[in-house]
Amino acid sequence: MRLLIGFAIAGLSFLASTSNIQANEWKEALSASKAPIPAAPFDSVNWRDDFPDALKEAERTGAPLLVTWRCIPCKQCAAFDKNVLEGSANLTPLLKQFVTVRLTDAAHLDERFFPYRTHQDLDLSWWAYMLSSKGRLYGVFGGKDHVSDATRISEEAFVNTLQRVLEHHYDPRRDQWGIDGPTPVSSRPPIRPAESTSFQEFAKTRPWVKKQECIHCHQVGDLLNFEKIENKTFRIEHLSQPWPLPENVGIEVDRDHGLRVIKVKKGSPAASI
Question: How many Cβ atoms are within 10 Å of 225's Cβ, its own excluded?
Answer without folding.
Answer: 14
